[in-house]
Amino acid sequence: SAVISQKPSRDICQRGTSLTIQCQVDSQVTMMFWYRQQPGQSLTLIATANQGSEATYESGFVIDKFPISRPNLTFSTLTVSNMSPEDSSIYLCSVDFGYEQYFGPGTRLTVT
Amino acid sequence: AQSVTQLGSHVSVSEGALVLLRCNYSSSVPPYLFWYVQYPNQGLQLLLKYTSAATLVKGINGFEAEFKKSETSFHLTKPSAHMSDAAEYFCAVSGQGAQKLVFGQGTRLTINP
Predict the structure, then answer these.
(1) ∠ Cα A46 A22 B88 (to 5°)
(2) Residue of B51, B102, B104 with shortest CB distance to A99
């Protein structure tokens, strides 16, 4: 299994600003994933991040809005740029660990 | 492409009663199927997974699920509900192992004393 931590756990931000979310894993993993969970909704995959390469974004998500870094095998960041109230969501990172995906506790973002 | 439909956004059962949460999937390739649980203000915890081995899968906390290809279903059951089972449950499908999960809309399970 893998233990995943995220920072911050929650934040309240002003529209037009940016927030960077950190994800730390206790083991080296090849693939990390970022998901968005809008209020009362299910999870939607934003992008897949492999170490040493550009992140792969899902339809409807773009790098300018959600830039991702993956500097090593245990860490990744997701930035939510130029935020609007519609970006208020829980953002979760996860890792693929042998036919299982493990999730972090999430970052609850509120944009005012 | 893969998709998941969870029948019933809210299920309520009495403590000690059978829990049945329904999940139907669509997949263009042999699927990998997962059930996750999300407790309030927490991340997702894997309950169980189907990876083309045994069709009846046993998971944690007394839950199990049966893969039925003919019905494209992967329903989650537990014989006797506990108050601690109250949470949101998500079914997910992937055509690539545990990568690129596609989630259903979730089912909120309420347990009545």
Answers:
(1) 55
(2) B51
Is the distance from CB of B40 to CB of B86 less than 8 angstroms?
no
How far is residue B97 from each of residues A46, A101, B52, measured CA to CA in Å?
18, 9, 10
Our CA-based measurement puts residue A41 at a distance from the nearest CA of chain B, in whole angstroms, of: 6
Residues 6+ apart with CB under 8 A from B49: A99, A100, B32, B33, B34, B35, B57, B59, B98
Going from the C-alpha of B111 to that of each of A58, B68, B71, the distances in angstroms are 36, 27, 28
pLDDT digits 0-9 by tens, A8-64 = 999 999 999 999 999 999 999 988 999 999 988 899 999 999 888 889 999 999 999
Name every chain B residue with its beta carbon within 8 A of the beta carbon of A96.
97-99
Give the gap in angstroms from C-alpha A5 to the nearest C-alpha of chain B: 10
Task: Write out the residues of chain A at the interface with chain B, using a CB-CB cutoff of 8 A.
Answer: 4, 31, 33, 41-45, 48, 92, 94, 96-106, 108
pLDDT the model gives residue B98: 64
Q: At which residue do the structure tokens 């699920």 appear?
A: B65
Q: Could you tell me the CA-to-CA distances from A65 to A10, A36, B68 in Å, in that order?
A: 19, 13, 40
Torsion over CA of B61, B66, B67 and B68, rounded to 10 degrees?
-160
Secondary structure of residue A11 in the 3-state scheme: strand
